[in-house]
Amino acid sequence: MSLKGPIISVEDDEDDQYLIGETLKNLGVPNEVRFFPNGEAALQYLETTTEQPFLILCDINMPLMNGLELRQRILANQHLAQKAIPFIFLTTAATPQIIRTAYDATVQGFYKKATDYASMQHQLKLIIDYWQHCMHPTNPV
């Protein structure tokens, strides 16, 4: 995790992409936000970039590669796993079984996606504030 690195948003819904982007901008988050429409596109980026992302916000239900599959592929890739990028699900797919599966894959958070701007702003502020103040193995003390 790099406090200055990009925020990776893996989200196939363009309206949700817009809402996430605008909310982060209105919160004054200086990080660039990179949007990917599915896990496959995000994984290609993560495997080839030299950047250290700040965190990953990920939907679950997406075409080609869903969010749970993306998380498993990141964990299976030693280089990506060592980057220890905070991985947070932000999704409407919040059944008990999916939540358990997500935490079995050692995600750092699971949020049921807000349906209005004020709630989305609250969720994202909590997430960003937490990770901006959290110690991380890739940041020197």
Concise summary:
Strands 2-1-3-4-5 form a 5-stranded parallel beta sheet, sandwiched between helices. The protein has 141 residues and is an alpha/beta fold.
Overview of the molecule:
With 141 residues, the protein is of the alpha/beta class. It has one domain (7-132): Response regulator (Rossmann fold, 3-Layer(aba) Sandwich). 45% of the residues lie in helices and 15% in strands. It is built from six helices and five strands; from the N terminus they run βαβαβααβαβα. A five-stranded parallel β-sheet has the order 2-1-3-4-5, sandwiched between helices. α1 (14-26) packs across α6 (117-132) and α2 (39-48) packs parallel to α3 (67-76). The relative contact order is 0.19.
Spell out the blueprint of helices and strands.
Layout: E1 7-10, H1 14-26, E2 33-36, H2 39-48, E3 55-58, H3 67-76, H4 78-83, E4 87-91, H5 96-104, E5 109-112, H6 117-132
Helix pairs in contact: 1-6, 2-3
Tag the structure with descriptive keywords:
141 residues; alpha/beta; Rossmann fold; 5-stranded parallel sheet; 6 helices; globular; Sig_transdc_resp-reg_receiver; CheY-like_superfamily
Radius of gyration: 14 Å
- Tally of helical segments: 6
Largest β-sheet summary: 5 strands, parallel
Classification by helices and strands: alpha/beta
How much helical structure, as a percent, in the residues?
40-55%
* Cα separation of the termini: 13 Å
CATH architecture: 3-Layer(aba) Sandwich
- Percentage beta strand: 5-15%
InterPro entries: CheY-like_superfamily (IPR011006), Sig_transdc_resp-reg_receiver (IPR001789), TCS_response_regulator (IPR052893)
Modified residues (4-aspartylphosphate): 59
Organism: Rudanella paleaurantiibacter
Keywords: Phosphoprotein
